[in-house]
Structures are given as structure tokens and as C-alpha cells.
Amino acid sequence: MGNPGRDLKRVRLKLPATPEDIAALEPGMIVFLDGIVYTAREGAYKRVLEDGEPLPEGLAELSNVNFHCSPAAAPDGEGGYRVGGVTATASFRFSKWMAEWLERTGTRIVIGKGGMTREDYANILVPRGAVYLTTVGYGTGALLGRGIVGVHAVHWLDELGIAQAMWMFRVENFGPFIVDSDLQGNSLFASHGDRVNQRLEALYEGLKPPALHRYGETDDRRKEVM
Amino acid sequence: MIGTDRIEKAAFDIMCKAAIDIPQDYLTGIKGMIDLEKGDLSAFVLQSMVENWEAATEDRRPMCADTGLPRYYVKVGDKAKLPDGFVALERALRSATARATTDVPLRPNRVHPLWRNDHNNNVGLNAPEVEWSFEPEVDWIDITTVHKGGLFGSDYRMLFPGDGIDGIKRFFLDTLIAFGKRGLACQPAIVGVGVGGSKDTCMQLGKQAACLRVVGDRNPDPKIAALEDELKELGNNIGMGPMGFVGSSMVVDCHIEAGFTHTGGMPVSVHTFCLSSRRATARIHADGSIEYRTDPRWFTPYMRRETIGWETPAETSSASA
Ligand code: SF4
């Protein structure tokens, strides 16, 4: 294979992304971003949605992209920060906060690891005009680190620590990301999962179940554990 | 005599190397998989990973921003002299971890499990873990660090002798499929399987098999080696590649370690080392000089001894040369 993935469609988006840009995204497209991307995960969600802390001012005008990640960052000694790399964290854990968060912030692109379930796309992202991009790999921290050209601001660093603080990164040619869900709620992960599932039964043929079962066990490998 | 300052330096250097430079054996393994991969998205992901490792090495930045759980494995030569003692050695490992966290930088991943407070230096209660082993006849100390992803991809199960090899295969598939979907385990990975021992030994052996043996290495027991090959092929036949996309790249290699176990049981553990297979080793010689490498050489013949004593030093020195 000379140039893996050469047939995949690629696009570069200026942020905040416009509704037209977002509507044009299809599952399986490769995306790079320019502009400002912010990080928020359980720490920030709890602070705003459960403890009533106000959102940073002007968030919606700056960025409509929420990245589920934490940076490897350290103070640079001059009042700024050195960001080594960023790596996404698994998004499915955050669904309980996402509906309200999307509404409050006007976020339209969610980036993370592993996507969310079809149901979450249908019930949470699609009605709010949002799509999901996944990081690649997922350990492409160094490539993503290259795309971060600076820290625009960081919120709640003292209260939440480096991993959970809300970082606003200035990014350039930031990626690669792959589109998982589109505005119709189609999901790349789900469609690939379906294709993988078709072979599973044959794989287990002739392997008898163990003598001792476990609580909560299912023999349906088409199911996911998340 | 091996002074504490040399230990601290070696421990710090391997933290940096592990975080930034992908081991060659793993890189070669992944490149071989790209050539065989027919799924276009799977191949794209693998190619991106190769570019990511190149970027990490060029920029001297961590290959993955999730530091995982940095830890140490120490092998002390039976003849090694440590004037400052073992408590000083452990202290040096902790201080090297803290220093690497700010200097590389590594993400401070370690928090209290209940109160979630963070020392911002990857040091805390029972962290970093330090595991010890010994080596007869030699006067060096080997220190290995492993930064393994910490959330998905490992499981343990008590099987019974009647479940047989089929039981192991089934559990192996269960674990890879459960954590391979959507690529939660960040495959393709070196997969370690622990068989036997008590529950904790079973977990420990499987983890060490995944993290402390290189791609291409085979267990000296020919029948276990054959099972390693078989499980590798089984994993790559699932039909799943990186990120759970359709593909054939799941298991870069499979390593099995065994331990004598309860006569009625056959506990099994499965561990996937992730796409960022971060390991680095330093050997500190008696004169204080330090040599670096990426093969931990943890499982020496002495480690796999089956008898009461250890009476063949010739074998040891050839294996640890
Ligand atoms: S499991 Fe994935 S995200 Fe976690 S350390 Fe490994 S490569 Fe990075």
C-alpha cells in the first residue's frame, strides 16, 4: 500500500465553523482545523452545569469546537505555557452533560476519542446541529501538539488542575481528525462496528463457553461494553 | 559502587526516551502491518501513527499526551553495590518521575482515586509503582520505565483446567473485541497473556509479558511459543483494525508468561499495551556508566527458573550479556 488513505476526502476548516461547513462533513472525511479550539471535560462540565459557575465571556464568538482532551503542558516560566501534546479522552462518559453544554455554549463540533453511541447522536448532537470528529489513533499527541501554535487563555487552572482546566488553544492545520457523525446522525464507528460484527459468530465457532459464568455476562458480541 | 545521582539521571533519561521515542521493534512491527492492511481507514490510521512518532522524535515532544501510568521495573545484580541503600534508590525514582513531569513535559496523570487531588508530578500514594527482580552473578542495575495507557484493554478471568486452550482463546477474543471496538484499547498492540499463578501474579505476568518483551520475541517453551503465534493470528483475524475500523491490524505480537498455579484452576489475564508502546531501559554499571536500550530483557532464564536453586550461572550470563 503506497500511500494509505489517499482515496479519503480531506477538508480544512476555519473556526468558528459555519453551518454550511458543518453540513458538508461526511463520515470518514479527514479534517484539519484553523482557529480556536477549547478543551472541556468532566471538571469543566461540573463547574458550569452543576455548580453554576458562569462560562468564560465571549466563548461562543471565539470557538464552537469542544475537544475532550487534556494537554501535556507546563508553565514556560514567562507567564505562558508550553504545550507538548494533546490526546483525546473517551467521550462516551460525557453524554449526560452534552445536551445542556451544547445549548449553553453554541458548540457545533465535538472532538474526542471513540465517538458516542448512535442514540446519543440522534438525541443529543443532531437536534443541536452538532457533529462529532474523532482523533486518529488515538495516540497522535505529537502531531496534534504541532498544530497548537499558542494558548489563547486557560480557565480554572488552579481549581481543576492541568488535565481538567479549560484550555483555549490557537491552532493551525490542527489534525488529522476523522468525521464520525454527520448532521443526520450517521456514524462511521457504528457502520464499521456493524461490518466487524458480521464475522464474529464464525470466529467463536467450536470454542465452548467456560465452566464458570460471570454476573452481567452476555454472549452477544455485537453488544458494546461502553 | 552505584551512586544515587547516577540512578536519578538514568531514571530521568529513560522517562524522556520512553515518552518521546517509539521503540524500533514496535515501529518495524507496525510498518509490517501497514503493508498487509487492506482497510483504507485502518491503513490511514497506522500511517498517521508513524507520522506522529516521527514528529515526536523530531520535535522532542511526547508521542501521546496521555502519559498513561509511568512506572519502574528494577533488576538488581546480585553483586551490585549501592552505598546509599535501597530507600535512596526508591527516592531517586520518585524524584526523577517528578522532574520528568515538568521537564518533558508529561501530563500529570496521577490523582487520588477517591479525592481526585493531584500533586501535578505523577508521584503519590503507591505511585509510581516499582517492581523488583534480581539477577545472579552480575554487578549492574537495570532500570526500565513503562508508560502504559491506563483505562482500557486489560481483563482477568478465573478459568479451569477443563476450559483448556479453547477457554484461553475465547477469553483472549472477548477481551480484544470488547476493548477493540472504537479502538478504546488503542490497538494494534503488543498483547500480553498471563496464565496461572495466583490472581495478582496472573495479572502481573500478563502485564510484564505485554510491556517488557519486544516484538518478535518468543517464549523459550516451544509449545507456549506456538500458542503465542496462534493467538496473534487469531487476533488479527477478528476483522478489526485500529479504532475498531474494518481491518486486520489488531495484534502486533503476542507474549505469554506462565506461573505455577492452584491445582484446580487456570487463571488468565490479557493486557494490551497501546499504540504508544513506551518503554526504555538503562543499565547502570558498577563504574557508574550508563547504557540505554529499548529491550528490557526482564525475563531472564533466572526469572523463569522452575527449581529450588539456581545452579547454572553460565546460562544467566549468556542471556544477560
Ligand atoms: S491508550 Fe492510547 S491514548 Fe492512552 S496512552 Fe496509549 S496511545 Fe495514548
Q: Which structural category do the helix and sheet elements of chain A fall into? A: alpha/beta
Distinct ligands, ions and cofactors found in the model: iron/sulfur cluster
Helical content class of chain A: 25-40%
Q: Which strand-content bin applies to the residues of chain B?
A: 15-25%
Q: CATH top level of chain A?
A: Alpha Beta
Q: What is the quaternary state of this protein?
A: heterodimer
**How many E strands of chain B?**
9
Radius of gyration of chain B: 19 Å
Low-confidence stretches of chain A: none
- The backbone outline of chain B, from C-alpha atoms, is globular
Can you count the helices of chain A? 8
Greatest interface and its participating residue counts: A-B, 63 and 74 residues
**Count of alpha and pi helical runs of chain B:** 8
Strand content of chain A: 25-35%
SSE order of chain B: HHHEHEEEHEHHEEEEH
Q: What is the makeup of the main sheet of chain B?
A: 5 strands, mixed
Q: Helix amount of chain B, in percent? A: 25-40%
Q: Kindly give the count of domains of chain A.
A: 1
Named CATH architecture of chain A: Alpha-Beta Barrel
Characterization of the model:
The complex is a heterodimer of chains A (226) and B (321). By secondary structure, chain A is of the alpha/beta class. Chain A has one domain: Alpha-Beta Barrel (fumarase). Helices cover 31% and strands 29% of the residues of chain A. Chain A is built from eight helices and nine strands. Chain A has helices at 19-23, 42-50, 59-62, 95-105, 118-125, 141-147, 157-164, 188-204; strands at residues 10-14, 30-39, 65-67, 69-75, 81-88, 109-112, 131-135, 148-155, 166-181. In chain A, the strands form two sheets. Chain A has a five-stranded mixed beta barrel with strand order 2-3-6-7-9. A two-stranded antiparallel ribbon of chain A has the order 4-5. In chain A, α1 links the parallel β1 (10-14) and β2 (30-39). Chain A is globular, with a radius of gyration of 19 Å. Chain B has 321 residues and is of the alpha+beta class. Chain B has a domain at 150-277. Chain B contains eight helices and nine strands. Chain B has helices at 4-20, 24-36, 40-59, 85-103, 164-180, 199-211, 222-236, 313-319; strands at 69-77, 130-135, 141-148, 154-159, 189-196, 251-259, 266-272, 278-284, 290-293. In chain B, the strands form two sheets. Chain B has a five-stranded mixed beta sheet, with helices on one face. In chain B, β8 (278-284) and β9 form a beta hairpin. Classes of the chains: A alpha/beta (226), B alpha+beta (321). At the A-B interface, β4, β5, α6, α7 and α8 of A face α3, α4, β4 and α5 of B.
